[in-house]
Amino acid sequence: MRRLLLALPFALLPLSASHAQQHEHNEHASLGAHAHGMAQLNVALDGSVLELELESPANNLVGFEHAANSPADRARIASARSQLEQPQALFGLATGGCSLSTQELQSPLFEPEDHEEHEEHEHAGEHSEIHAHYRFACTQADAVQQLDLSELFKRFPATLKIQVQLLGPNGQQGAELTPDNPRLPF
């Protein structure tokens, strides 16, 4: 299943290329680029297994990309992490009997502080990202009819658009979800 999820961006490459031809965009809005306000979500539903992989600039989820410099920064990071640890609510997965079987959250912001690495990071001009990978076991996978990202947009208002690539029972599709259009049917 993990290979399926990792192959999803390549399977949908023709779709994203045609989408790019239809809509004017700059290189920062293309898939794989780091753009504040934009995030990417890969979704694969294979049998009873549902996998979600969210990639977002840290700025969208915590409001900054630097290492925590204050107790307020550390509290914002802890709050974002706590919310990311509730994927059923973030992705509207109330149906299908889906229970979280594995979860992995990765970001330099989640690591213990190392001031030397922090200085190197700031000087290199890199951007911090947050990667969240979830795997669910669904007892009634056919009841999973849509993703609803309303709650994700509500909890992380700096996230303005999410490029979704979905591989499900009805084939593959791509979509751009926004706070005004937060749902994607399977």
From TrEMBL:
The keyword Signal applies. Keywords: Signal. Residues 1-20 form the signal peptide. Residues 118-128 have a biased composition (Basic and acidic residues). Residues 104-128 are annotated as: Disordered. The keyword Ribosomal protein does not apply. This is Zinc-binding protein. It comes from Pseudomonas taeanensis MS-3.
